[in-house]
Amino acid sequence: MSEPTVIPPGGGEIVGDAPERRVEILADHQALHVTRSRFGPRRDGADLHVHRRHTDLFFVLGGELTIRLGPEGEGTVVPAGTLARVPPLVVHGFRNGSDADVNYLNLHAPGRGFADFLRGLRDGRTVSYDQEPPPPDGGRPTTEAVIGGDEVVAELPGVRAALLADVAEVGLWEARIEPGCPPEPPHRHRRHVEGFYVLEGELALTTGNRELRAAAGSWVQVPRDVPHSVSFPSSEQTRLLNLHTPSCGSGAFLRALRDAGTGELAAARAGFDLQPV
């Protein structure tokens, strides 16, 4: 993919569609695979497993998702608006333990073949993927998994950003943008892929002479080295997830926006792989 893409609500590649379960692929770039899922009440998800070479993340859009951790599968309820991050070699699984539907994003950074694994399940094919049963030693401590919590790193006029994940594989923050906020200046990322999931409001992505609109429930992906700018045309607050894979210093950049001087901000921008155009 060499051009930005917008996948509207319900427009992903379907790999499961039944009354009790719907799963669609939103992104399958090697840096990040993303699915959006709906599970019906009391629907089981994945059995306990580990990933050796990638991080598994869940962002709950609506309802409650139960994340199971450790060899005993101890459950933790993750409410709407919350991110769960499971590092490599931490035993985990998940299910809908509630009496209502749950909707969530599942993100694998890097992808390690997750999307093809789901296609194989759909098509009745066996596909190799970075997933194994729990190891005999029990895996890494469950305390390494992070559920909830955020670090508010930028309170600027019209914008509030909260850092949800800041590891080498992915930088992820939630932003709230008030109506009338100025557009983001044109820029490019040479070493990483940028993604957006619009939770509320609307995002407009401009690249060259093209403007792409993304309503709530849309996924937006910008490949490496593509000049782009972002604006927010909604008359209401826009709320979105912004992802950088790999992170390339995105967390440090946000912190610099909060409290660094001009020189430090320039250094953080350079370290973040952000070049103005």
Could you explain how this protein is built, in words?
The structure is a single chain. This protein is mostly beta strands. The chain folds into two domains: 5-147, Sandwich (Jelly Rolls), CATH 2.60.120.10; 151-276, Jelly Rolls, CATH 2.60.120. It has three helices and 22 strands. The strands form five sheets. It has a seven-stranded antiparallel beta sheet, covered by helices on one side. Strands 2-3-4-10-5-8-11 form a seven-stranded antiparallel beta sheet, with helices on one face. Strands 7-6-9 form a three-stranded antiparallel beta sheet, with no helix packed on it. The mean pLDDT is 94.
Annotate the secondary structure layout.
Elements: E1 5-7, E2 13-18, E3 21-29, E4 32-39, E5 55-62, E6 64-69, E7 74-79, E8 83-86, E9 92-95, E10 102-109, H1 114-123, E11 146-147, E12 151-156, E13 159-167, E14 170-177, E15 187-188, E16 193-200, E17 202-207, E18 210-215, E19 219-222, E20 229-231, E21 238-245, H2 250-259, H3 262-271, E22 275-276
Antiparallel strand pairs: 1-19, 2-3, 3-4, 4-10, 5-8, 5-10, 6-7, 6-9, 8-11, 12-13, 13-14, 14-21, 15-22, 16-19, 16-21, 17-18, 17-20
Helix pairs in contact: 2-3
